[in-house]
Design a protein that fits this description.
The protein is an alpha/beta fold. It is built from twelve helices and ten strands. Helices cover 47% and strands 18% of the residues. The strands form two sheets. Strands 1, 2, 3, 6, 7, 8, 9 and 10 form an eight-stranded parallel beta sheet that branches. The chain has a two-stranded antiparallel sheet with strand order 4-5.
């Protein structure tokens, strides 16, 4: 489950509800003007017991590599095996707003990814790049269990970086199973592929899908989503089926299976803000019914 835009004081309850519903992961975001990603992740980890918590994503351009590595190491030591750190380019317009747009988004992401990865391994790192500058930096307390980094990337260059860095890949909402399959082929079988997907499920199929129709229509104006959909996206209802998990229990099962078959290792349900608790309950009901019928 992914939390997006909730006030910080509600994160704990949402994380606990996600864990109680039997879901495996809880992801937070670090969008400009919302809540801090590390603070949310730390809170979610501290108020749950076993669920994994992901940060998807922290913009590399605004994070000092050494200090980000310190934050990751701290959470990894306190909650071994449960923290999934994510880095990405960040939204260019947000980076411009805070005066942090680098000369090269890709160079910044690669340098931060490389430096953080080495620091987490306990290496002493000196690095003088276009964005990262470190002089004999070493973590005094590196993690006992080094968490893999995950990169929020979309295009071919980002996939190549993830492969070189042996990092997982996080795909944003709007991905189709076909696009996921292409990414899986690009990065290979050994790297984790996490897919965020717009989610609205419930007993009333039309009502559930109505929640996402305006979201998907608005997203269709985005150039990259059109790239993800391919040259022949099909009718709108077909697009809705391909980029969401929406409708009743049968649609839920079919759409989840489509992403799984395409190569997704983790499918992260992303409800609309304000619809979070309702969606956890609805997914909990679907999963509970599935468990009963499988016994």
């Amino acid at each position: 489950m992914k939390v997006d835009g909730l006030p910080a004081e509600q994160v704990s309850d949402f994380a606990r509800s996600t864990e109680q519903a039997g879901l495996d992961e809880f992801w937070v975001v670090e969008d400009l003007g919302l809540a801090g990603g590390i603070a949310q992740a730390a809170t979610a980890l501290a108020t749950t017991t076993s669920i994994r918590v992901g940060l998807g994503i922290s913009p590399a351009a605004v994070r000092n590599a050494a200090y980000f590595a310190m934050e990751v190491a701290t959470l990894a030591r306190i909650h071994p095996g449960r923290f999934l750190p994510g880095l990405g380019h960040g939204m260019p317009e947000w980076l411009e707003q805070v005066g942090a747009h680098p000369v090269s988004l890709m160079a910044a992401l690669e340098e931060v990814t490389t430096s953080v990865g080495r620091l987490l391994l306990g290496e002493e790192v000196s690095f003088n790049g276009r964005h990262v500058h470190l002089d004999r930096v070493v973590l005094k307390h590196p993690p006992h269990e080094v968490p893999g980094l995950h990169l929020g990337v979309r295009g071919p260059k980002g996939m190549e970086l993830a492969k070189r860095a042996a990092a997982g890949v996080i795909l944003a909402e709007g991905s189709t199973p076909e696009y996921v399959r292409g990414v899986r082929e690009a990065v290979g079988p050994g790297q984790r592929l996490t897919v965020f997907v717009w989610t609205s499920v419930g007993p009333d199929t039309d009502k559930a899908r109505d929640v996402l129709r305006p979201v998907v229509r608005k997203a269709l104006s985005d150039d990259f989503m059109r790239f993800q959909l391919g040259d022949e996206p099909g009718e709108f209802e077909q697009v809705l089926d391909r980029v969401t998990v929406s409708g009743g229990p049968e649609a839920f099962a079919a759409q989840v299976e489509a992403f799984r078959d395409a190569g997704a290792d983790a499918l992260i349900f992303a409800p609309q803000p304000g619809n979070d608790a309702e969606q956890i309950a609805a997914i909990d009901d679907i999963l509970a019914t599935a468990r009963k019928t499988s016994v």
